[in-house]
Structures are given as C-alpha cells and as structure tokens.
Design a protein that fits this description.
Layout (H helix, E strand, L loop, with lengths): L1 E7 L3 H12 L6 E8 L5 H11 L3 E6 L4 H11 L4 E4 L5 E2 L3 H12 L3 E9 L15 E4 L1 H10 L10 E4 L20 H5 L4 E13 L16 H16 L4 H20 L3 H6 L1 H19 L5 H25 L1
Parallel strand pairs: 1-2, 1-4, 2-3, 6-9
Antiparallel strand pairs: 4-8, 5-9, 6-8, 7-9
Length: 321
Amino acid sequence: MISVVVPIFKVEQYLINCVESILNQTYKDLEIILVDDGSPDNCGKMCDDYAIKDSRVKVIHKANGGLSDARNVGICAAHGEYITFVDSDDFLDENMIEYLYTAIRKNNVDIACCQRQEINECGKLLKSKRKYNTLVINGNEECMHEFLSNPQMDTVAWGKLYVTSMFDDIRYPVGRYNEDVFTTYKLISKCKSVFVGENKYYYYRIRTNSIMTTTFNRKHLDAIVGNEERAAFIKDNYPKLQKLANAGILYAVNQCVMRMISSSNDSLKKNLDVINKLQKYYRKYEWSFICGPSGIKAKFFSLLCYFNLRAVVFLMKKIRG
C-alpha cells in the first residue's frame, strides 16, 4: 500500500482537481490522507464528502499549524510501505504513482522521482525548454552528489515516492518557509540508490499569492538558514561535496535578492540591514557558486551582487520601473 499525504488549507477552488487526480490513479492500493489544516473555507466538508464516497480516503481535521505540521501529522498517520506528498493546489497525471512504484520495485531504490509540469492558476501548461533524462544513481555519496548538482532531483517533497521507514526519525520543521530545504537532504543521506525519471507527471501550479511567488519578507531567509544547515551536514559527512553545498547557500541568497527587486520601495527601505547581511554571503560563497551547477545568467547576476549588492538591487528596481 502507498500512503498519499495531502496538506489542505484555503484551496477550495483547486481541491477537487487535486483529489480526483489521486483517486483516478492507475495504481489503486492507496491510503489517501487528507489533512485539513484548519482551513476556514469549505475544504473540511469537501474532504469529509470524499471519505464517504471512497473508503481509501482518511480525513484528519486539525488546528492550523502550517504546511510542515500538516505533513508531519500525515506521516504519523500513514500505514503504507511507501509514501508520497501532494500539495493541494496541484494535481497528478493518472500514471504518476504507478510509474514511481514500478521504478522503486524494478530498480530496488529508496526514492523515485518524476519531473514537474508547471501550470498557471487556470491550469494552462507553461512552456519549458528544459530537457530531462532517466537516471538510476547508485551509491550513497553519488546520490548526494546528484542531489546537490542535478536540478532533475530538486529539493521539493512532492513528485517523489519514498520508503516510509525513511521518515522514522525525520520530520518537516514547523514554522519554517522552504521546509523541504531543511529535510530532503537528510532523506537523501539515507539512500543507497535513487531513481530519477524524465516523465513530467506532477502538475505544479504557479499561484501569485503562494509562498514561492510572493515578494520578499524576512521569512524567505529561512531558505538560506536551511542551506546553511545542509552545508554544515555536508561538511561533516560528505566533505568532497562542500563546494556544491556552499553554492546552494548562494542560490538561496539570489532568490531572496530577486524577491527584493520585486518588492516596494518602502519594503526595501525597511530591509536595508538584510541587504547588508546578504552582501556578506556573496563575499563568502561567490567562488563556490561560480564553480557550481547554476546557469550563466545566475552566475553573472551573483557576480554583480558580489561587487555591490545594494547598487544592483536599486538599479534593477529602477530599470523594472
């Protein structure tokens, strides 16, 4: 049996699409755990209705605690040999779970991943030029190397099928943004082998008001903290991969800077101390980032920030109007 954990909060307009895509999977032996994270809309009742219609659906109602807390509750309730996560504003190709399950069983791996297909709020496919390959990675250090260097593996929790026992001593950090950054590397560190598929079977919805697309606030600095924790772990356990881990810190810094550029002038003025703090990261980790797996544009941007971050932020903001 495979457990599917779905944290739910204020997604009434997307929930049917999400849950129906799970119910209609070609792989049928599922335990579908819908975690109503204190959603103030009609989501709770919709979940209860699904539990009446399909015996595979289990509903947990809880006070709002955030995405990590809802995932953790779902993990504790899971009985399947394998587990996967679905964000409640996204949906799945009907073949996704069978594809990942077959990959795990056929290749004897600990985690199987597929790729995302990005969609807009209305569900329209967004074009991407990125090409993917199917890989089977063997060896613990090789798995960690690919995780740190290959964007096909990504940090996100969803789009992956895990052996459930991997979560015996791992949970998502409650109250943090970018909770996956704090967690996925710990799971990879337990792997002897990983399957990375080329198929785009997870439909990821880009929403204007989501955590991943909003303009800067200080909670976005959590991604940097998570990458620093990961880099410290890599230093202790995979010292040969230290530069790759350090590059991840600056990648997170770049993301915070881009959010700042999209923020209001008032917001920038309130966060001048943050800009000064981020400048220090560029001075410390720029060479690791230049030697890392990011693209030319990202490296050029980081190099400009290395010399004068404040000037880059205000100049790009002025250019964008």
